[in-house]
Design a protein that fits this description.
Elements lengths: L12 H12 L8 H16 L16
Length: 64
């Protein structure tokens, strides 16, 4: 098993309340804030071309 490191982030209370509302919606598959946030970040990184890493180098943003 990989040695995965975690960190704490700070978010505005209102964002956390909105996330909690999503989690409480039983038709969605999220069981925790952590699960929701990890999925949201992965999806955003995919739209930017950074996730999954190194699979499509042509999609990466050009940083000048």
């Amino acid at each position: 098993m990989k040695n995965i490191k975690y960190t704490t982030i700070h978010m505005p209370k209102r964002l956390l309340e909105l996330i909690d509302n999503v989690i409480e919606n039983e038709s969605l598959a999220y069981s925790s804030r952590t699960e929701f946030i990890k999925d949201a970040v992965r999806r955003y990184l995919e739209t930017l071309g950074y996730f999954p890493p190194n699979l499509n180098p042509n999609k990466s943003k050009n940083r000048n």
